[in-house]
Amino acid sequence: MAQPANVGELLSMLDSTMLGVRDDVTAVFKENLNSDRGPMLVNTLVDHYLETNSQPVLHILTTLQEPHDKHLLDKINEYVGKAATRLSILSLLGHVVRLQPSWKHKLSQAPLLPSLLKCLKMDTDIVVLTTGVLVLITMLPMIPQSGKQHLLDFFDIFGRLSSWCLKKPGHVTEIYLVHLHASVYALFHRLYGMYPCNFVSFLRSHYSMKENLETFEEVVKPMMEHVRIHPELVTGSKDHELDPRRWKKLETHDVVIECAKISLDPTEASYEDGYSVSHQLFTRFPPRSADVTTSPYVDTQNSYGSATSTPYSTTQLMLFSTPRHLPQTLSSPSARLLPEPLQATLWSPSSVCGMTTPPTSPGNVPSDLSHPYSKVFGTTGGKGTPLGTPATSPPPAPTCHPDDYVHISHTPQATATPPRKEERTDSARPCLHRQHHLPNDRGLEDLHRSKGSVTLSDLPVFLGDLASEEDSIEKDKEEAAISKELSEITTAEADPVVPRGGFDSPFYRDSLPGSQRKTCSAPSGTRGSIVNPEPFHSSLDKRGPDTPKQAFTPIDLPCGGADSSPAEDRDRQTSLETSILTPSPCKIPPHKGTGFGSTQPPPYDHLFEVALPKTARYFVSKKTEELLKKVKGSPEEDYVPSTSPMEVLDRLIQQGADAHSKELNKLSLPSKSVDWTHFGGSPPSDEIRTLRDQLLLLHNQLLYERFKRQQHALRNRRLLRKVIRAAALEEHNAAMKDQLKLQEKDIQIWKVSLQKEQARYSQLQEQRDTVVTQLHSQIRQLQHDREEFYNQSQELQTKLEDCRNMIAELRIELKKANNKVCHTELLLSQVSQKLSNSESVQQQMEFLNRQLLVLGEVNELYLEQLQSKHSDTTKEVEMMKAAYRKELEKNRSHVLQQNQRLDTSQKRILELESLLAKKDHLLLEQKKYLEDVKSQASGQLLAAESRYETQKRITQMFELEILDLYGRLEKDDLVQKLDEEKAEAAEAAEERLDCCNDGCSDSVAGHNEEASGHNGEAKTPRPSGIRGSYGARGAGGSSSSSELSTPEKPPSQKAGPLSSWWDTTVGEPSTSIPTVGSLPSSKSFLGMKARELFRNKSESQCDEDGMTIRSLSETLKTEQGKDSGVEAKSPLNLDGPHLSPPAPDSVGQLRIMDYNESHHEHS
Amino acid sequence: MTEDSQRNFRSVYYEKVGFRGVEEKKSLEILLKDDRLDIEKLCTFSQRFPLPSMYRALVWKVLLGILPPHHESHAQVMMYRKDQYSDILHALKVTRFISDTTPQVEVYLRMHQLESGKLPRSPSFLRQPEDEVFLAIAKAMEEMVEDNVDCYWITRCFVNQLNNKYRDSLPHLPKAFEQYLSLEDGRLLSHLRACSAVSRLPYDLWFRRCFAGCLPESSLQRVWDKVVSGSCKILLFVAVEILLTFKIKVMALNSAEKITKFLENIPQDSSDAIVSKAIDLWHKHCGTPVHSA
């Protein structure tokens, strides 16, 4: 855009016939587009395209890159709004969309989509509608999830158009409707495939209305017959269908295939995967499927495909050359390359479909009917002889041959124009690739040849195998190469029909059943470029288009009628008018006029068939059957209700083609100019317009189908990749297995070696063990030795120590010895001294001895003198002795005397001692006795006391009784007078008392009575009453102490002591005479002592013994009394006289003892 | 006892062989021949051996202090006792507390009451429980001793001994009884406890009356030998032995009333055995009394 002014020039240059210029210009545009981001250039391009329909511009537009998409879409949107430009812009949009630009996802957001939908809803032009619908159908798989917001619009469009199909509003021609129907049918498939639930619900709601019922019956229902139940209807839901996640996984071609899967229409359906059942179904119901397959739809599609391809070829070759091609191919290859023709014919049925050269000969038709079978698929049989073609096309073939041949020969050269060659160089690689494959192909072809006798039934399988083998490796590369080539070629050639790639693929498809290579080469051949390097190819090329035709013709013939059908394509331009079909005449003008340029539709028919991927396999069988049927009752077919719109369209096209070929046949087969001129003038403008429209429609349809094919191709590539991968993996697996085996072997070897090693190891270990044991034993020995040595060393050490000790001791001893030596030396010196001394002493001794001797002699002398003097002393001594003797005797006698005295005195002492002992013993006995007596007395005393106690009790009782009685008496007295009674009472009381006293005395003891008698007399100085009386009573027996005063005392006084006693014991307070009672007790001991003294003096007559005894007893009593109290006295007193008689002798002793005792006690 | 063994070395073996009491009479006679009776020896003897019945009264009287240990004074003391007895009797008769028709036992009771100064003002006064005890003992004693004076004196001293010497130990006997019963037969005791009869056993009959009226006199006097000689524990063992003997019957009885009733009127036939066993039991638990002198 650097030079905007140049744009116009450049654009004009684009259309130049010079390929080089064209390429340069396109390059310039591309550069500009890359550099510039503005909408200007795009807009101008679009405008230019709309004006001129220039192919290069279209190419540029379709390959626009990202930043320009918006401008382009905006521009398109703008033009869509305008009715005038709508159709062309839609077709432009179709081109753009089909190429699946990288920005296709933006389509949904672009304002273009709503406006397109709106246009589809509003527009009434069927051509526009059809085009728009096809564009929409193409777009749908690209924007599956984003299209959902327009879902209702889609449905509405479907509803509107489907009703159109029936109602034919206004001026719409029948032929258009066929197209429309076909597109609606496609839309139906697409919608149903993509949004089954929603779509079904829409159908349900929409066609439940009465006004739509008819439409449903007529249009929709038949459509539904070609559809199986969508699985989503069962598993999915409305929301799920619209879920973006569902669509994310699927690519565009996936969506397309998905849609194809649910189709029962063999032309549409995909037999991938698990749909074999349906496939069987088809086979099972041949008639039906046959009907379907034979449907014109197929043809139309084929024609579509061919349409795309044809223009190309037509540009270079003459329109009519194609029919001639066949014969050429048939003949020429056979002539040139022997193997090739065979193959070509072999493959012809599948690949050839489109090229119905033979049909050119109308007369052949009937004969073909029987043949085609054998030819097309049965070529196997008839293959060896390219019978089919010759047979069918004998009439034309010969005629054509020369021309065709020339043409062909010419074409390569023509095509091999310099620019192209340059192009070719660009695509050198693809060519190389192909060459690579060539050998393979040849091999295959050889195979085919050898298998020439393969039966019909086997063929498909055989073909399939071949295809799979070949395809797997080659396809990808080839495809890539081809597509590149083609695209480049197309650009170079400025072929209006964009999809070069698409071009190839149909061929390629064909090759699936048959040989791709040939089909592939076919297009290239047609272009001529490919042919160049390999003549072989060129021949193939020629054949490629041709053979299909051969196969096809039989089909076409019946449809189109014997005359018109064979030439359909080529004839279209020329002989459409003549054909029975009304539309056909109209077709030609548009073709020419619209400037699809120099496009000539005719030869594309075969491509249609090839373009349908699935049909290919079944094509032959169905076709044949269909043909058979058609032969029998072709007219009926049209009325078959189930014929799909596609078929109808197909048929329409076929018929058109037939008509055309018919026309062609009528004409001589010269150059196009003849045709052109021939047709150019005659057709009416109206028809021309309709034809042009129809052509447009067809073109659109074709483009759509091509798009579909492309998708299939994509998918196939992907599948292939998978297959390759799987194979590679398998190989890899196998390799791995081999490796594994090898490794296992290795492992085994290792194991063996391991065992060996182990054995060795065990041996070594054993050896080692033995060595170890030996070493151990050695060690033990050594240890033992060591210990022994150790012990020895220890012993030695001890010895050493001993020695040391000994040495030390010895040293000590030595010292001692030294000392001793010293000492002895000292001593020695001393001794020597002494010795000297002793010597001197000895000398002295000797001297003394001598003296002694002298003295001895002197002594002897003196003794002698003494003896002489001894006799005088003896007498004196004797006298002295005598005196001594006498004195001795005297002393002895004296001693005797003394001894005797001693004896006597000793005896005396003994006697006295014994006496003393006796006395002691006696004393003891006495003591014992006394004890005895004491205890005895105490026993008696106790008894007496108890008696006394009882007496007291008795008296108490009596007193009680008396008092009781007194009480009674007094009570009685109270009643009487007191005075008289008192005296009497006193007397009575006295008497009573006496009585009582008597009673008492009686009861106590007999001698008491006497005592009482005495008492009356002897009662002198006693100060006390009772005590005195009782005490007296004790002494009463011996002493006549008369105490007569007692009885005279008043009774109350007498009773006093009693009562006092009573008091002391019982504790009852007595008022009577406490003082009197107390006197004796207080004075008792003193009184008694005094009494004794007194009695001793006054009553001198008393016996001494008795006195002593009494006094003794008294003292004893007093002593005891201190302990036992007053009570003990009286009994003792009583006992006194009793005791006295039994022991009168021992009184003195007793006294002594008593005194002793008393002494003891007192002390 | 050393004298006994000196006198007859066989006496030890007699006992071993099973002849008990062969030498007892002799030894007792020897004991009684001593001028001054050794009371302790007599006590030990009577605890160890059953007393011959002919000396029983004498020994009892000596042990109870009715007679002094000296033979010489026996006559005189006895005379005193008789005098005392007759005096009291006379006095009671004079005061008309008793008459000739009064039963001897009651006479004893009145005499005892008189002596202890507890004579009620009228004979018609209700008797105290202690009087009942006295009556029971006197009744049993009447059977054992012929002479009235002796009987009175022994009864009196016996009761006095119970009241004075054993006053402190008698109330503890029931507890000791339970203890020994549990030692001898725990099940029986638990049965009694289960019947809550332990507290309701005839302790009064057993320990206050010394089984007077419970056991026949012939066996009773053997028990009383021990009681007189200074051990009241024998009562306990007799009671234990009674229960052990009649264990089966007692176990069969479930209510305290029935048990008490049964024990108050035990059959007389096995009393001798009961007493012998009781003495053995007593010896077993308290050891054979040995003269400590």
Top keywords for this entry?
heterodimer, A: 1163 residues, mainly alpha, Leucine-rich Repeat Variant, disordered C terminus, B: 293 residues, Cyclin A, domain 1, 67% helix, coiled coil (chain A)
Q: Over the alpha carbons, how many angstroms does the gyration radius of chain B reach?
A: 20 Å
Number of strands of chain B: 0
What is the CATH architecture assignment of the domain at 166-292 in chain B? Orthogonal Bundle
Number of helical stretches of at least 4 residues of chain B: 17
Give the rounded overall mean pLDDT of chain B: 80
If you had to describe this structure to a student in words, what would you say it looks like?
- The complex is a heterodimer of chains A (1163) and B (293).
- Chain A is built from 48 helices and no strands.
- Chain A starts with a helix and ends with a helix.
- Chain A has 1163 residues and is mainly alpha-helical.
- Chain B is an all-alpha fold and 293 residues long.
- Chain B has a domain of 127 residues: Ypt/Rab-GAP domain of gyp1p, domain 3 (Cyclin A, domain 1, Orthogonal Bundle), CATH 1.10.472.80.
- Helix content of chain B is 67%, strand content 0%.
- Chain B is built from 17 helices and no strands.
- In chain B, α8 crosses α9 and α14 crosses α17.
- The radius of gyration of chain B is 20 Å and the shape is flat.
- Chains A and B meet through α39 of A and α6 of B.
